[in-house]
């Protein structure tokens, strides 16, 4: 089961300064981490971008936030986009293979600091010192490359380099339609206040599907929701709420990038505007419930 969260490149469009924009992105990354998202995808919304907080800024800050703290200085150095990286809330991501990120049998990210002879490399993976590891057959690594390290013991240190995807939250940039078209997209949900209201009864069937197939949930930007980004009439979405998948929901096929349903997870919102980072918590929390 794969969980993907899609956010627009215009995510920080309303931020007054770089500090505020950075903090906002930190809470987006934290929401994705709390609910164990596998991917956080930034899709383009060029018309909604303002000033310096474009897709490049958004992706850089999110990638930095998703980088383990022990690798940040070595992996990123000094960059203008990260001027206020200190305000990012810690993600403290749990390992998916161990009891915690430092636990026995856990996987963690490392960075290759030196490529030596006889198929050995030195890797900084957050232990007291870089450790020397054998490179698995058919796996090629370069200095500065990020790798996955499986740690079975810390005292004494027992670890091995494994040819597996990096653990933790993956940050990507891709087109919205392409993200929804992935084989592992699962249930494709558009989060919008114009969508079908999420009820207890609807959640019971929907949660079963997301647990089995996974899900991809797309969000809009401040003052610029998904209908505006996609050029879809809000009335078309409202009229079709509760009628099933995107092919029959009244939305023009040329405008709909491939959603299965439009969903309003805050049906009785008390604030005129629900911020994107707030919408992530409000949406991913109920969709993560299990029987």
UniProtKB/TrEMBL annotation:
Region described as Disordered: spans on this chain: 239-258
InterPro entries, per database record: Alpha/beta_knot_MTases, NA-bd_OB-fold, Put_MeTrfase-C9orf114-like, tRNA_m1G_MTases_N
CDD domains reported in the protein's UniProt record: HsC9orf114-like
Pfam families noted in UniProt: Methyltrn_RNA_3 (PF02598)
Taxonomic superkingdom: Archaea
Name of the protein in question: DUF171 family protein
